[in-house]
Structures are given as C-alpha cells and as structure tokens.
From TrEMBL, chains A, B:
<feature type="domain" description="HTH tetR-type">
    <location>
        <begin position="16"/>
        <end position="76"/>
    </location>
</feature>
<dbReference type="Pfam" id="PF17935">
    <property type="entry name" value="TetR_C_27"/>
</dbReference>
<feature type="DNA-binding region" description="H-T-H motif">
    <location>
        <begin position="39"/>
        <end position="58"/>
    </location>
</feature>
<dbReference type="InterPro" id="IPR041478">
    <property type="entry name" value="TetR_C_27"/>
</dbReference>
<keyword id="KW-0805">Transcription regulation</keyword>
<protein>
    <submittedName>
        <fullName>TetR family transcriptional regulator</fullName>
    </submittedName>
</protein>
<dbReference type="InterPro" id="IPR009057">
    <property type="entry name" value="Homeodomain-like_sf"/>
</dbReference>
<dbReference type="Pfam" id="PF00440">
    <property type="entry name" value="TetR_N"/>
</dbReference>
<dbReference type="InterPro" id="IPR050109">
    <property type="entry name" value="HTH-type_TetR-like_transc_reg"/>
</dbReference>
<dbReference type="InterPro" id="IPR036271">
    <property type="entry name" value="Tet_transcr_reg_TetR-rel_C_sf"/>
</dbReference>
<keyword id="KW-0238">DNA-binding</keyword>
<keyword id="KW-0804">Transcription</keyword>
<dbReference type="InterPro" id="IPR001647">
    <property type="entry name" value="HTH_TetR"/>
</dbReference>
Length: 207, 207
C-alpha cells in the first residue's frame, strides 16, 4: 500500500503487518531509552527501514506514540472485555472486572517499570487516546450494571452515571498515578472494602 | 530561649512568635520562588535575621519545609474538625465533611496555584507529615461513622476500616494529584453520586 495508514482503521495484509512491526520496535525502544530519547529515526534504524517508510504509516512522532499507547491499552482491555461478555452474576462480574483492571495495572508496574513509566508519559500526552480508553471503561461497567438491573440484582435508574461513580470510587486502585505511587503494593483488601460499599449502593436504588 | 525548638511542641511566648514569623516568611518565599529556589538563608534575609537564629528553630531546610506543610494542613483541617465536633445527622455531616475537604483542596488550586504547587512538592517530600495528615482524616471519618452507628443511622462493625474505604472511594476528589490534574474543575455532582453509593454501603452493614 502506498497511502498513509490511518491510526484507527487498518486494512489487513502487508501494510498492517509493517504497522505492527513499527509499533513493536517503538515499544522496545521506549522500554530501553524512554519517551524523550526515542525518535522516529531510531525506530526506522532499528527496523533497517527508511524513516520515510515509517512516516508512511505514522505521520508524526505524536501519531506513533498515540498508536503505541492505544495498542497497550487494547491489550489491558482484553480480559476486561471477556468479563463483560460473560453470563452470570453481575455483582460477581463487576467485582472481578474491578479487581482485574487493578491487577493489570499493578502487573505493569511490577514486571516492567520502565515501560510503564514510558506508557504513563505517552498516556498523559495522548489525551484523545486516554479519553477513548476511559469511554471504553465506562461502557464496560455500564453494560455489567445494565445486566445486573435485568437480572434483578441491581436497582439503578441511570447506568451510565452509576458507571462513572463506580470508576471514580475505585480510581484510587487503577489510576496510573496511584498505581505508580504505591509501587505495585497489593491493595486487594482495600479494593474489596470499597467494592462492598459500591455494591450496596448499586442494590439500594440510590442512583 | 537559647535551646533549639522542637518542631511539634512549642512553648508559648517569644520563641513561638519567632517560629510563626519564620513560617510565614518561608510560605511567602515558597509562593514567589518555589521550593527548589527557597533556602534557609533567603528566609533569614527576608526577616533581617541571622540564619543561625532560623536554625535555632528549624534544624534543617527539611524541618522547615515539614513545619510549613504541617501548618498548611492544619489550616485545611479547621473546618473539617468543626464538622466532626457538631451534633446532628451523621450522614449529612459525613457528606458535608467530604464536600468541604474537596472544596478546600480545590480552593487552593484556584486561588493560589503557585503556592499549591509548592505545597504539593513539600507534601510529597514530607512523608511523615502526610502520614499524620491522613491519620487525622481517618480519625475524623471514623468518629462521624461511630456517631452514625450510635444514632442508629449506620450499620458498621469496623469504623476504622469503613473510614479507610470512604477516603479511598472519594480520593479522586481530594487527592492533590487529581485536584491539580482537574485544574480546579467543580466535581460536586460526581462527588455526590459516589457519596450516594458510600452512604448506602454504610447503612447496609456490609463493613
């Protein structure tokens, strides 16, 4: 393909493959050298590719960063999407969803602190990508809450407002800043206590 | 007085007065020049005092910073302590306490951003001061929850654990990082929704 690829819709085939290779190389360089020291030219050199070829896929360093962050967030969301798609108790699924989100973020801090720091910086810069991510988190929680209402587990008039409240109430455990600050400390017991309050709220018809 | 003053217990009289003057001068310099550029020598110069005299009250720049942060936090806590001491509905007082804490932090960002940034840096460095502050916040919330249990409003077996959960669930609205990040945006509606969940939890006997 000769035309520049758009960052969200990507056709199958060779262009898509090259795009993935560029993202993987960029991820690797971010891990080793950090965001400030990673340039499009470095990425091209690592792939023995002309930087014109990289620019064919990503029009700027910012676009490349956004795509790297987007792919990272996509991977984090995989087990969460699976929980949303399950049948079974909404209360149990919502608790598992919150615990999984916190565990995913925590695992990044523990297993790959340099990459987490690089991604955190990317995420802070890439506002639109982060907004789309938060929207997806809200959609996930609202979907489980709607299931809970249908199953007669929850009494909630406005699932979207309730989803916002659930994410706000638990952000202490999954927001990148706090995950970083707590150095990957296990906060499971504290999450469970907050979740008990949240669950009582979703059952009470208060929202 | 000739002996160095300890930072927490301070006798009444001239020593205490000098100590307050030093803290006020340090606060003023922090506001104008930031934490990195404010030295004990600057504080002494602003007061036309020998720096040996400043050191008589604060053994190091760190000790001075801690005391400045402590005084700032003490001021923030005044209206909160008053709410704890009131009679009346525990649910209403707890909501007002949370809203007041968020409003206090928000006011600092809006009205005095430079000083807030300097204090935020001081707070991040002065771990012991911050821990004492969080302990006081927990004590406040636990006291209101105990009142609520006595008044038959709440069903809570472990008020301290419940207080931790309440502060965790609302930290999105009063933690310095988020207050700074949100640029002082009014989050009252979002706090109220989270508080509804929290309140249902405190009434349900889940904690």
């Amino acid at each position: 393909m000769k035309k520049p690829a758009t960052p969200t819709v990507e056709p199958e085939g060779k262009g898509s493959e090259t795009r993935e290779r560029i993202l993987t190389a960029a991820e690797d360089l971010l891990r080793r050298h950090g965001l400030a020291k990673t340039t499009v030219v470095d990425v091209a050199r690592a792939l023995e590719m002309s930087h014109a070829n990289v620019y064919r896929h990503f029009a700027s360093k910012t676009e490349l960063q956004d795509a790297v962050a987007q792919r990272w967030l996509h991977r984090i969301m995989e087990p969460l999407r699976a929980i949303v798609a399950e049948d079974g108790s909404a209360a149990e699924r919502l608790e598992r969803w919150v615990m999984t989100l916190a565990a995913q973020k925590r695992a990044k801090v523990l297993n790959d602190p340099e990459l987490f720091a690089a991604y955190h910086a990317v995420a802070q810069a890439a506002r639109a990508v982060v907004e789309a991510h938060i929207d997806e988190l809200l959609d996930n929680v609202a979907a489980i809450i709607r299931d809970g209402v249908e199953r007669g587990e929850f009494k909630v008039a406005d699932p979207r407002a309730a989803a916002t409240a659930v994410l706000n109430a638990t952000s202490r455990f999954h927001h990148p800043y706090h995950v970083k600050e707590s150095g990957g400390r296990d906060t499971s017991d504290e999450i469970r206590d907050v979740f008990k309050l949240v669950l009582a709220g979703l059952r009470s018809g208060t929202l």
